[in-house]
């Protein structure tokens, strides 16, 4: 046997002994780690499947509730939306609350509708755009059934320059002031809409009509 062969055999024996020592000390731990990885992977795959299945079921249920509403079956639709409020993904829960509130408002149950919209706007886990829309929807309902303070409490923060929903927020504030007979503040809100180049055209047209009404009642007149 050559010296090289002898050295290799000794080296292999040493490696085998080291491996056996390592396995004796850490074999169970290694098996546990391997099993944990397999279980974690399987659990994650199941979670993906489960959440996708839940989302699909919630989507189907939401569309079924919308169909009931479109068919004029309001009581059934409200029941379906209320059931969805506690099921499925957060997005569908919020959408169900939103649509349920709209159906309540349509049936004249304004106070209950406002409560649902307020629940959405106060939910920090809900999507921010939906929370903003909920504030505006509640404010619009409160133009007729609430006070200027009620409307301001919901949309003042949305009316700031550059805010995404400032046009709708300012319209709600302007209408609230107009209804309360405060032509000066109503004029300020509606005039800011006309001067804002990003105000949607349809809203700008409505705004000009209201500004004419304000002027006809002795309020401020917009510079042409």
Report the order of strands and helices.
HHHHHHHHH
On the 0-100 scale, what is the average pLDDT? 81
**How many H/I helices?**
9
Give the biggest sheet: none
Walk me through what this model shows:
- With 224 residues, this protein is mainly alpha-helical.
- It has a domain at 1-107.
- The chain is built from nine helices and no strands.
- Helix 1 (3-70) packs antiparallel against helix 2 and helix 1 (3-70) runs parallel beside helix 3 (90-106).
- The protein is elongated.
- The termini are far apart.
Question: Topology of this structure?
Answer:
Layout: H1 3-70, H2 74-84, H3 90-106, H4 110-121, H5 128-145, H6 148-155, H7 166-179, H8 183-195, H9 201-216
Short description:
This protein is mostly helical and 224 residues long.
List keywords for this structure.
single chain, mainly alpha, 224 residues, 9 helices
């Amino acid at each position: 046997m050559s010296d090289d062969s002898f050295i290799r055999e000794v080296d292999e024996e040493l490696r085998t002994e080291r491996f056996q020592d390592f396995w004796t000390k850490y074999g169970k731990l290694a098996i546990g780690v391997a099993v944990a990885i397999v279980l974690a992977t399987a659990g994650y795959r199941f979670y993906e499947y489960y959440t996708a299945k839940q989302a699909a079921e919630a989507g189907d249920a939401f569309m079924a509730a919308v169909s009931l509403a479109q068919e004029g079956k309001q009581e059934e639709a409200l029941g379906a939306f209320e059931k969805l409020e506690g099921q499925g993904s957060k997005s569908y829960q919020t959408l169900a609350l939103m649509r349920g509130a709209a159906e309540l408002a349509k049936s004249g149950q304004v106070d209950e509708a406002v409560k649902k919209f307020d629940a959405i706007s106060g939910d920090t886990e809900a999507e921010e755009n939906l929370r903003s829309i909920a504030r505006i929807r509640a404010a619009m309902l409160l133009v007729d059934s609430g006070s200027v303070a009620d409307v301001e409490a919901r949309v003042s923060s949305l009316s700031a320059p550059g805010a995404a929903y400032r046009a709708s927020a300012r319209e709600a504030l302007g209408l609230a002031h107009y209804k309360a007979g405060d032509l000066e503040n109503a004029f300020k809100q509606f005039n800011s809409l006309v001067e804002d180049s990003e105000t949607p055209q349809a809203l700008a047209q409505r705004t000009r009509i209201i500004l004419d009404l304000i002027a006809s009642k002795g309020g401020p007149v917009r510079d042409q």
